[in-house]
Amino acid sequence: QVQLVESGGGLVQPGGSLRLSCAASGLTFSLYPMSWYRQTPGKQRELVASITTDGSANYADSVKGRFTISRDNAKATMYLQMNNLKPEDTAVYYCNAERWSLRYWGRGTQVTVSS
Asked: Which residue positions in the chain have pLDDT lower than 50?
């Protein structure tokens, strides 16, 4: 059974930092491209950042220069370092693993940026 478990969310002031983690089990982690998505109420889930199996990263324009995605295949874990957080970054952040027709999601972790 595939499980993706996000952690590291919370309440942070504008300009602050958080590091999200996504621990994977039940799949061969190193074979899966991985992504972080986020969603706010009433809006579609949007892609924040993605990382290929060889570590190449891509980012949404809104987070470029502030967020860094990484992965540790030995630990089957993906990370999202978020710096200089803004109120508009407030959302539930989801971990995604996708390969061919297989797509898996975590349950999400809440990030709230507020003073």
From this structure: none
